[in-house]
Amino acid sequence: MLSQNSVSKKAPLEVLNVFSLKGIQMKTFHITWITFFFCFFGWFGIAPLMKIVKDDLGLTKAQIGNVMIASVSATIFARLIIGRLCDTLGPRLTYTGLLILGSIPVIGIGLSNSYESFLLFRLAIGVIGASFVITQYHTSMMFAPKIKGTANAVAGGWGNLGGGITNMVMPLIFAAFVGAGYTKPEAWRIAMMIPGVILLVMAFVYFRFTKDTPAGNFSEITRQQQTKGSFWAAASDFRTWILFLAYGACFGIEITFDNVAALYFSEYFKCDLATAGLLAGIFGFMNLFARAIGGIVADKVGAKMGMRGKGWLLAGLLTFEGIGIILFAQTNSLAMAVVAMLGFAFFLKMANGATYAIVPFIDSKNVGSVSGIVGAGGNLGGVLAGFLFKSENITYNQAFFYIGLVVGAIGLVVAISRFEKQSQTSEKLQLEPEMA
């Protein structure tokens, strides 16, 4: 990770030098994770302000649950579509279009004056979550097989960091507008315009300064018909659906926690808005390193034990994540809750990285479709978890406890699943990188 070898400028990189901006590969790497980082400001910018929105619009617990579900449900379908578009149009045009489209409801949510209108805008904002699929796809195109897991994990982790920073920064932006003389109902609406404008800026940056592949954009190169991908080929591989479940158990719970954490700390532990946002932000801040560690370890395990080893690693991480969530649900102490949160967050985010260290090796001709299906699994996990937090008969603590049990069970399913194509076949021989 500390040096860059002298490979062709049109070839995928064999190493990841995060301090480099040389070559289209590294420029694209940095632009894609930064873009994904700001997508979180649009996607979850309203989450740390939900206490204010709740009071302003008079939302009930069930309505807040519906809002949480809406914020991630649209992403399920968006990720399936976006994955296919990456295989056909290319990541550059796909990301540019998504950013422009996503900025509209982010800016427009300030027009909400009722539960119904707020719910519709929150649903529309959910399409921004599909940005993750493009980030992982684009990174996979820029790096060689032995480093794909690490590159994907670092890009995804640093991008996911936006979820934590959003929880810290948006309450400060809100407070700044209140300090400038705006009322609280006015301030949260104006605050959401900022991430919307940023998305438009990043749309220009992505279109202007990235390429689909090291060799050029899809429109500039000749692609063989068999490399253009088939959604159904990706969907017919059972391993895709095992990863679909696994990602629902890690990333699905991450976005659920991003949605509910500030409100949970605010109402259950009586924290003020800024403190609740800070604690929720710490959860997301672990993406700075934890997801990257998951990808790095998965690459090293894969080099020695192949896909089977990667599968066992993912299973172990999910199991420990489930145990940590159960412990978090059982504590009444704020200090112990934070400790438990840090514990399960570490394994959860490592599992995110380990999952997408496997994804590029499922089907090299359909990386976008596999990535989209697995990514959609993450959002389906968030939707299902959201129903627990919506229920009037289940407390937030009970919801976390049930989630911990399910995550542990999925860890067992992953443990008994076979990810290698042939027994004793090395990962290097299982897959050759898809390059035009």
From TrEMBL:
Domain Major facilitator superfamily (MFS) profile residues, every copy: 28-423
Subcellular location: Cell membrane; Membrane
Entry-linked Pfam families: MFS_1
Keywords: Cell membrane, Membrane, Nitrate assimilation, Transmembrane, Transmembrane helix, Transport
Bilayer disposition of the protein: Multi-pass membrane protein
Transmembrane regions listed in the UniProt entry: 31-50, 62-81, 93-112, 118-137, 158-182, 188-209, 230-253, 273-290, 311-329, 335-359, 366-387, 399-419
Domain of life: Bacteria
Coiled-coil regions, chain positions: none
PANTHER family according to UniProt: HIGH-AFFINITY NITRATE TRANSPORTER 2.3
Family listed: Belongs to the major facilitator superfamily. Nitrate/nitrite porter (TC 2.A.1.8) family.
Entry protein name: Nitrate/nitrite transporter
Organism listed in the record: Flectobacillus longus
Organism lineage: Bacteria, Pseudomonadati, Bacteroidota, Cytophagia, Cytophagales
